Hints:
disordered C terminus, 8-stranded antiparallel beta sheet
Amino acid sequence: MQESSNSMTADSGHRSQLKDLVIRLLSEHRVLTIATNRADGWPQATMVGYVNDGFLLYCFVARNAQKHANIIRDPRVSIAIGSDTPQPLDIKGLSLGGMAFVVADQNEFDYISELRLKRYPEYAALWAPVSREDPLQRISPRPASSGVVLFRIEPKIISLLDYSKGFGKTDLITFSDRDLDVHIESRRHRWDSNIAADTATNRRSIEA
């Protein structure tokens, strides 16, 4: 029994280390490659800017983009994140399979807009888009939902590369529906409290 308990503790510790590395990689990068499925059967891979809130990934996509049509028709996506390195044993990256969902909650939309501005502070200096079709809508500080869709990507499985542990070393991390439910719920208070904090700040400014 003691041996079994030690094994479970070791497995739990290893899983925790893997998840920490995943969060670190997601937080260190700003661009990912996303593969979606076209209606004609051809896969389509494009590069997209993103932000993450824990394991949840978010990206703004123009409503008239092909990948938007692809995802609405088939929400299954594959993603790769990584970068080049001069030393092969320094390679770290990840790929994942997941489901993409349109963010309909305005609190969540506003929270991610603020989160993205922290990841891309240079966007604050851009001039405002002049129309709904303007490509700048996607990278404006507060994108208009009329021309841009915010997708939340929930991972189902992540393949983690860490060649510092050996060339070609990969680990798989799976997420159950329950894992994702708990993860999303743990962040929901952030979306709501963020809006509540903004409202309180605005109220104090008005009263002052």
